[in-house]
């Protein structure tokens, strides 16, 4: 490869270089992620059991541990071409500001109206729902990026889209809500009285601002109680991680073109889809014994599932209507402190990433939100992009690592995922700018309360 070619600020790919297949990293994993379990029988969920909830093709993808490459249907490729390839940016300005010998690259996924990587999976999930002749889909959204992406994807295919939005976000982010409605989605604050599980949660916790786990339970109920509807999820599931591998595949092709090999790959981790998507092709090389990378998942100190959670089977939702997944979890009833503004508030983690982490293929770090916003501000001022708070977790660690290189003189190549923009997060930025942002790290006792609610059965001891 032309290793000495001068590296441009932005590396784009030609359309002809865009991926035509997603890469399923599970195929190369010796220790496969544990299967989803039926909470009643404690047996692996079968295709037929999952069909009432998810589209058939997506169930196949969810259960597929063996096919390394899965074709991206033409229509999805076409949609991808509207806003992809996303740029791989050499952060020359940040490097100069930090006076670091490190070479920093980021893959920017915020160049579409939804403002994040979530559209990569939303369009795939909407496509399969349409193919199956469904009327519509239901989902939950926390910060709003997923709901926005899904409403865009559904309007493209003429599908009905029903979004349960965590009540605090619904109230704090009216503009997110209106973008979704502009794309034709019906948005309901969760918990709501439109579902049995919502009414139950409201009766037990009157006045609650809701949580992602609650909203998932409501959306699943809405899907399974309406003819011609299925449920879709924007993170955590293996199918979502699969669709997000378009990020890593493009990155790898772009880097290969210039002979760039990252030493370190950093990403923020909520449910794990962007990080999993970014690292998959690189982890594939590690799994096949071809190369090694230093991979770091970054999570909020206020929702530390990898760094402080337990690797056990747990419910994916608060209402316990979903299957059990084996993952690093804080317990399905864990809700981060209300002062937490930075997103990434899901209690669990992708079972693929959980297994890779457990097997030592990656490490994890937790960071406090004031430090995250400090990094966000520093980045915004030199790189010209206002980052999402979620993405800024990765920026924090990328900057920390670049500063270490400054001390040691090492010229490491650092790659991180910049998952989105923060235009709808100005309440959080305002808090930071006013010096009113505080850090809350849960105590061991706080976490224990969540662990106590993890289901106990033989083989699932904490
Ligand atoms: C949803 C979201 C995340 C976290 O989700 P993952 O599944 O962990 O990738 C990160 N960044 C942005 C901008 C998001 O919208």
TrEMBL record:
Quaternary state and interactors: Tetramer of two alpha and two beta chains.
Organism taxonomic ancestry: Bacteria, Bacillati, Bacillota, Clostridia, Lachnospirales
Pathway: Amino-acid biosynthesis; L-tryptophan biosynthesis; L-tryptophan from chorismate: step 5/5
Family matches, as SUPFAM superfamilies: Tryptophan synthase beta subunit-like PLP-dependent enzymes (SSF53686)
Enzyme class: lyase
Protein name: tryptophan synthase
Function per UniProt: The beta subunit is responsible for the synthesis of L-tryptophan from indole and L-serine.
Cellular component annotations (GO), alphabetically ordered: cytoplasm
């Amino acid at each position: 490869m032309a290793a000495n070619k001068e590296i441009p600020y932005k590396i784009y790919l030609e359309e002809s270089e865009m991926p035509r297949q997603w890469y399923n990293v599970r195929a190369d994993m010796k220790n496969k992620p544990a299967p989803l379990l039926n909470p009643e029988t404690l047996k692996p969920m079968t295709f037929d059991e999952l069909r009432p909830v998810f589209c058939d093709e997506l169930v196949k993808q969810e259960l597929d541990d063996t096919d390394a490459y899965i074709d991206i249907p033409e229509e999805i490729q076409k949609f991808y071409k509207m806003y992809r390839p996303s740029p791989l940016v050499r952060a020359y300005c940040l490097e100069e500001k930090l006076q670091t010998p490190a070479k920093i690259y980021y893959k920017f996924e915020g160049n579409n109206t939804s403002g994040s990587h979530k559209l990569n999976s939303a369009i795939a999930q909407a496509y399969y729902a349409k193919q199956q002749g469904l009327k519509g889909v239901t989902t939950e959204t926390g910060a709003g990026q997923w709901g926005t992406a899904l409403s865009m994807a559904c309007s493209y295919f003429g599908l009905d889209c029903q979004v349960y939005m965590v009540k605090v976000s619904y109230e704090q982010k009216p503009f997110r809500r209106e973008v979704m409605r502009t794309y034709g989605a019906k948005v309901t604050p969760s918990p709501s009285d439109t579902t049995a599980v919502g009414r139950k949660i409201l009766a037990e916790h009157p006045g609650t601002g809701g949580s992602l786990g609650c909203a998932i339970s409501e959306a699943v109920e809405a899907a399974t109680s309406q003819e011609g509807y299925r449920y879709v999820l924007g993170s955590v599931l293996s199918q979502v991680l699969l669709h997000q591998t378009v990020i890593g595949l493009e990155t790898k092709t772009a880097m290969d073109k210039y002979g760039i090999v990252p030493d370190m790959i950093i990403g923020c981790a909520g449910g794990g889809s962007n990080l999993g998507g970014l690292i998959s092709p690189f982890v594939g090389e590690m799994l096949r014994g071809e190369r090694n990378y230093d991979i770091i998942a970054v999570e909020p100190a206020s929702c530390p599932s990898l760094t402080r959670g337990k690797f056990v089977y747990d419910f994916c939702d608060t209402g316990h209507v979903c299957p059990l997944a084996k993952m690093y979890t804080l317990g399905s009833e864990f809700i981060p402190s209300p002062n937490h503004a930075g997103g990434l508030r899901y209690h669990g983690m992708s079972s693929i990433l959980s297994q890779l982490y457990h097997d030592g293929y990656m490490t994890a770090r937790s960071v406090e939100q004031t430090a995250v916003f400090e990094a966000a501000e520093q980045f915004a001022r030199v790189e010209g992009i206002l980052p999402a708070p979620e993405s800024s977790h990765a920026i924090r660690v990328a900057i920390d690592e670049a500063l270490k290189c400054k001390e040691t003189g090492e010229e490491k190549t650092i790659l991180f995922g910049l998952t989105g923009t923060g235009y709808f997060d100005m309440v959080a930025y305002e808090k930071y700018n006013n010096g009113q942002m505080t850090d809350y790290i849960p105590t061991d006792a706080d976490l224990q309360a969540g662990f106590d609610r993890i289901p106990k059965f033989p083989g699932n001891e904490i």
